[in-house]
Each structure stands twice: as C-alpha cells, then as structure tokens.
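Tokens as discussed.
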C-alpha cells in the first residue's frame, strides 16, 4: 500500500473500526472440522433429491417474497412462537443483531452482554457506533452475576442486553430465575439468544408477551442449516415493526426461503440428528472427565468447554491440529478463558479421533 492510500484509509475509516480485527475463520482443509458448532450430518439422499427438484422449479429472475411469508409461518409453527407475537427474519441471526444495533444506536447508547459471551454482540455494537459493556460471568462456574449486571444496567442504562441461552463459548444454561430478574430490572430490551435451542429443553419462547421488553432470537444454523444463513427474532409487534424498518429489502434470498421451508417440513430428520449430537455430547463429557489434567464444564449446547492443565492449551490445540483435528482455542480470548479449548460435538467417528488425539496430547 502506498503512503497516500494508507493516509486516505486512516483519514476516512472510523478509528474504532480500524482498531478491530476482522472475524477470523480458521482454515479447516483436510482436517476433522470441530471448530464452529456446526451439525456434522448432511442430508439423506431422498431428501436431497426432493430438494434438488424444488430448487429446479424455483425461479430466480424475480425478487423473493420480501416478507418471506411461507417460511415465517413454518418457522413460527416449528419453533413454538406464541400466538400474537411477530417475527422478523435475518441473513443469519448475526444480521438480526445488526438490525437491533442499527435501530437502537445513537449518541451515548449502550449495548450490554456478559463476558465471555458471543463476540458478535461486541463487534456489531462497535460497527454501529454503540458503546458496549460486557459484565463478567462468575469465574467458578460461568453463571450470571445478577448483582453485577443490575449494577451495570443501573450505571450504563443499556438499550439492549443480549443473553445467549445456552451461552457461547461457555456452553452452560443460566438459571432461569436469574434471567427473569434481569428482564425485570433492565431499562430497555433483553434479547434471549437461543442459537443452541436444539440441544436443550429450556427456552424463553413461551414467556414472550409476558414481559414488554423480552425478545427471543433463534437461528437454523445449529440444527443443520448453517449454509443457508437464516435467523429469526420473535416478540411483540411494536418492537419488531420498528426493527423491520432497518431490514434491507429482500434480505432472505429465494433459495434460502425455499430450502429452509422445505427442510422444516422434514424437521424429523434434523431432530434425529440433534438427538444423536446430544447423545454424543454426553459420551464426550464423560470421556473428557476421565482425561488427566482436564476440567470439563457442563454443556447444554453442541460444543464443550474444557480447561487444560495450566499453560497447556496452545500446545494441545496445535497437537490436535497436527493429528488432523481442528477445534477452537479460546486461550487468550478472555481472562476467564485461560487454558480453555472448545471442541464441537461431531459424528461418533470424528469424536473418536478427537478423543484419541486428546489422550495423546494429554500424555505429552
Ligand atoms: C450465541 C450465538 N448467537 C448467534 C450466532 C450466529 O448465528 P447465525 O449463524 O444465525 O448468524 C452464534 C453463532 O455461533 C452464536 O453462538
């Protein structure tokens, strides 16, 4: 880059954007990919054939249905959205976080979540010029520190508090009553982000409408449709009507609309896959608990948080990679995540390879 170009960029791009690092995606070529909380299972052939036919009959010369009505109805039904609540859809739930931030940002406006939490809350708040406050979880078990959250809400008056339930990257489910206390004390919105809903039996969806400031966000990514990029926000219409104004027209493309609606008609296939993932999670939790020098945290998600012996996480992460297994290294991401690794639950054979690699690196 020439000096002139560099000066231009520095002059015009906002300093808080220049200070960011772009969202990093690891190269997984040739590796067992257990780093991104994806469903490892693909579709059975019969489903693929029917889907291919449907795509063949889909026209792409016209813009898609801007309100994605057929898909929205199917989503409301399969996700148990209570009657009378509105839905808006996003290009992944990431885009929904962005819509919320765009609609709520402004001078002195704050977005709040917990740390360690989902990194996109902080990043998107920053993109949209919002002040972000992350309130630390309790170090011993990553539970919510309700007193600290209430104090921070009092001090910063957040327009929105995001709570991932279960949380990423810690995999735990917070106490339900603790979340209710936060909803009741929040000055603005509380968005319960249920990205990992397929892997737990707990949800705030049925509580929509009971609290004026509660919204629930979901995604189809973790149930097995990450490639389609589709998320949803459910809640009272007065909020969602406003957020809908910042949604780009046609944000959910026609192939996603048709494919997701089709997939949800065959939800039993995905339910069977998530049951397998849950069973494998329990097997992995038990196996990790047997590994010397490993602390395993409870998981209600499709990934597991582990702590290695002090100072070993980087070495174990590299050791796994050298053995063909890619997970996520969280060491250094946050002080509470020191020595932590986050493997995603894969297929039995992938998990077997991962456990074998863990056993080897734990011995070295
Ligand atoms: C807690 C949480 N929320 C939202 C998302 C984003 O999901 P999507 O794929 O729908 O953008 C993720 C992705 O990992 C997540 O962990």
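Sequence:
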């Amino acid at each position: 880059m020439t000096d002139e170009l560099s000066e231009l960029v520095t002059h015009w791009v906002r300093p808080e954007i220049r200070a960011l690092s772009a969202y990093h995606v690891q190269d997984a070529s040739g590796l067992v990919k257990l780093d991104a909380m994806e469903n490892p299972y693909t579709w059975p052939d019969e489903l693929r054939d029917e889907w291919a036919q449907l795509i063949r009959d889909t026209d792409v010369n016209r813009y898609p249905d801007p309100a994605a009505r057929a898909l929205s109805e199917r989503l409301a039904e399969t996700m148990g959205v209570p009657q009378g609540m509105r839905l808006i859809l996003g290009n992944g739930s990431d885009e929904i976080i962005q819509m919320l931030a765009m609609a709520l940002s402004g001078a002195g406006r704050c977005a709040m979540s917990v740390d360690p939490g989902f990194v996109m809350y902080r990043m998107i708040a920053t993109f949209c010029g919002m002040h972000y406050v992350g309130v630390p979880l309790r170090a011993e078990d990553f539970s919510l520190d309700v007193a600290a959250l209430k104090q921070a809400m009092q001090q910063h008056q957040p327009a929105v508090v995001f709570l991932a339930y279960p949380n990423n990257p810690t995999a735990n489910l917070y106490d339900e009553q603790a979340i209710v206390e936060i909803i009741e004390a929040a000055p603005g919105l509380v968005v319960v982000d249920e990205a990992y809903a397929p892997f737990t039996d707990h949800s705030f969806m049925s509580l929509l409408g009971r609290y004026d400031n509660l919204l629930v966000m979901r995604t189809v990514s973790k149930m097995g449709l990450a490639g389609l990029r589709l998320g949803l926000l459910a809640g009272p219409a007065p909020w969602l009507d406003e957020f809908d104004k910042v949604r780009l027209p046609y944000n959910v493309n026609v192939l996603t609309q048709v494919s997701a609606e089709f997939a949800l008609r065959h939800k039993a296939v995905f339910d069977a896959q998530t049951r397998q993932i849950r069973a494998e999670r329990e097997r992995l939790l038990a196996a990790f608990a047997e590994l010397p020098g490993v602390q395993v945290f409870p998981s209600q998600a499709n990934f597991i948080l582990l702590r290695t012996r002090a100072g070993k996480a980087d070495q174990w992460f590299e050791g796994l990679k050298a053995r063909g297994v890619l997970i996520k290294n969280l060491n250094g991401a946050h002080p509470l995540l020191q020595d932590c690794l986050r493997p995603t639950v894969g297929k039995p054979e992938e998990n077997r390879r991962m456990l074998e690699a863990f056993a080897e690196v734990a011995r070295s």
